[in-house]
Amino acid sequence: MFPWLDGTFKKLSNRIAADKLHHALLIQGPSGLGKSNFALELAQLLLCKARKGDEVCGFCQSCLLNAANNHPDLHVVESDKQIGVDQIRDAIKTLVSSAHMSGAKVLIIYHAHTMTESSANALLKTLEEPTANTFLLLTTDKPERILPTIRSRCEKLALPLPDLDTTIAWVKTQYDAEIDINFAKLFSARPLALFAELQEEQSFTYETYSTGLESLLQGKTSATQLAMDWQDNADKVLKWTQYWARQQCTEQLSETLWQLNLQATKVIRQLRNPGVNKTLVLTALLDKLALVKAA
């Protein structure tokens, strides 16, 4: 278990041992925090036949099946876009039948906010009248997009956020290279997101971005020139600009910074259109960014 989530996991394991765990948990937190891993490890603990405190035994039949990703009483629902009603109905059918291993049955719904209204409504009866020893684990980074009727029937579990030192310490155990402290600040509460970004940096690094950003703010380079240099890495530039603007907003209230974040979101949508002129839309965004110093 990730160190920043270990305390919460131990508390839940104690409730499992005391048979006091709520049948439906809504596991909340920002992306890159570790919600999916948390839900999966909790499910494996529920299914283990010989668990010891907050640890699975690793040797019982349930643990062996989980290790092979083939446990008949663990069901997972997820989707890259939307979770359809048929996915939920199929999952419910498996839950209402008897457990194959004569133990718990667990349904994990990753990114529960992507359920359609029909999907959510199909899940309601199961949440209201769960079968014996059945557990539903829903994860989300956008709880406000989940129907209130779903939220009200779940116990809300907001996972703790790690501080910057904890984030960097964990990433250093996974990433054998120097970590830019300013880059890490953009992901201070999302260690997995920081790790993923570091792995994807390759030739266009955050150092390249931050150096160009500083030159722009100091008037040493133009928005047009940067846009031309960065157009092949437009997705990263937009993402990092959003992170940078949000980080700045936590340190100072600024209408310009807020508008910059909104425009980055708008440009991200524009870049999804085929044939869009990346240099043009990036220039407009960087022109807005250059106003930050003036503000």
From TrEMBL:
<keyword id="KW-0548">Nucleotidyltransferase</keyword>
<dbReference type="InterPro" id="IPR004622">
    <property type="entry name" value="DNA_pol_HolB"/>
</dbReference>
<dbReference type="Pfam" id="PF13177">
    <property type="entry name" value="DNA_pol3_delta2"/>
</dbReference>
<dbReference type="GO" id="GO:0008408">
    <property type="term" value="F:3'-5' exonuclease activity"/>
</dbReference>
<keyword id="KW-0808">Transferase</keyword>
<dbReference type="GO" id="GO:0006261">
    <property type="term" value="P:DNA-templated DNA replication"/>
</dbReference>
<protein>
    <recommendedName>
        <fullName>DNA-directed DNA polymerase</fullName>
        <ecNumber>2.7.7.7</ecNumber>
    </recommendedName>
</protein>
<dbReference type="InterPro" id="IPR003593">
    <property type="entry name" value="AAA+_ATPase"/>
</dbReference>
<feature type="domain" description="AAA+ ATPase">
    <location>
        <begin position="21"/>
        <end position="163"/>
    </location>
</feature>
<dbReference type="GO" id="GO:0003887">
    <property type="term" value="F:DNA-directed DNA polymerase activity"/>
</dbReference>
<dbReference type="GO" id="GO:0009360">
    <property type="term" value="C:DNA polymerase III complex"/>
</dbReference>
<dbReference type="InterPro" id="IPR050238">
    <property type="entry name" value="DNA_Rep/Repair_Clamp_Loader"/>
</dbReference>
<keyword id="KW-0239">DNA-directed DNA polymerase</keyword>
<dbReference type="InterPro" id="IPR027417">
    <property type="entry name" value="P-loop_NTPase"/>
</dbReference>
